Amino acid sequence: MSRKLKWGILGCASIAKRAVIPGLQESKFNEVSAIASRDIDKSKSTAEEFNIPEAYGSYEALLEDPDIDAVYIPLPNHLHKEWSIRAAEAGKHILCEKPLALTAREAAEMAEAAAKAGVILSEAFMYRYHPRYDMIKDLLNSGSIGQIRAIHSSFTFNNAADTQNVRYRKDWGGGSIYDVGCYPIHAARLLLDQEPEAVTVQAFFSPEHDDVDMMASGLIEFGNAVSLTFDCGMWAAFRNPLEVLGTEGSIEVPYAYSIPAGGDHFYLNKNGERQLIAISEANAYSEQGDHLADVILNNAPLRFGTEDAISNMKVIDACLLSARERIRVTL
């Protein structure tokens, strides 16, 4: 690779500072060249903290920087569409935080804008770039656990005391299904290589948190009588496991999406034995960045296109409708 991909960061969100910026800086083929905030003091202090060369006091100014190849958008969910489209029109490739949009229709509009501008638009589901998921898919495709019968996954954490958090703004796309439920939904689609046929979701909507879903439990029906059962929440103890159950065994991933140090492993359960599958630690954020750099700089094939993001948003749309209306929604 002849050079590194130069990134601009649109916003100083916690996920950007905690994970994405360090991940890009630790990667092989990326560098973070600029960061923007509507508060110039915030962008300057973040730039100083992470040794980022340029700090801008507006998102527009960063998009006008001719040296920036790609932008990462960690803004609140309701701003994803606007700033992804504006970035595309500025000729910048885009990595946008999940969920890509508030609806599948918005996601399709974003995809159309990116295609028209000839830029890459990618949804930031970093977990799928961790090498263990290719290993898990290989095990499933080889029949290692027999026929897949069911998938179960959870993603919960407790941040309910922070009532001013953007996750608790209904009009900003707040709620647990948008924030963490999107992961089990996406993982099931990824592992099964299928799209769901129907969804049923029950949720707890909290008046203390602008009536967003603070906890949700769902059944996602796929073909061949296989289903995903999942739960997600922002007012529950932290956990994020995934289990794939087969006729001859199962695969357990204790930390499926948020991976603590030393948590890259998974287990293969078969013939009464529990085998630890150890993997060298990998930074999924770095892997994500290096894949996009390879695509943008070397014309490598993009592993996950916008059609995947639109399809995932269709399921999220159905889950939210099911939870609100207390109905089974067919897709």
From TrEMBL:
The lineage of its organism: Bacteria, Bacillati, Bacillota, Bacilli, Bacillales. InterPro entries: Gfo/Idh/MocA-like_OxRdtase_N (IPR000683), Gfo/Idh/MocA_domain (IPR050984), GFO_IDH_MocA-like_dom (IPR055170), NAD(P)-bd_dom_sf (IPR036291). Belongs to the Gfo/Idh/MocA family. The keyword Oxidoreductase applies. This is Predicted dehydrogenase. Gene3D superfamilies: Dihydrodipicolinate Reductase, domain 2, NAD(P)-binding Rossmann-like Domain. Residues 5-124 form the Gfo/Idh/MocA-like oxidoreductase N-terminal domain. One of its GO terms (molecular function) is nucleotide binding. It comes from Paenibacillus uliginis N3/975.
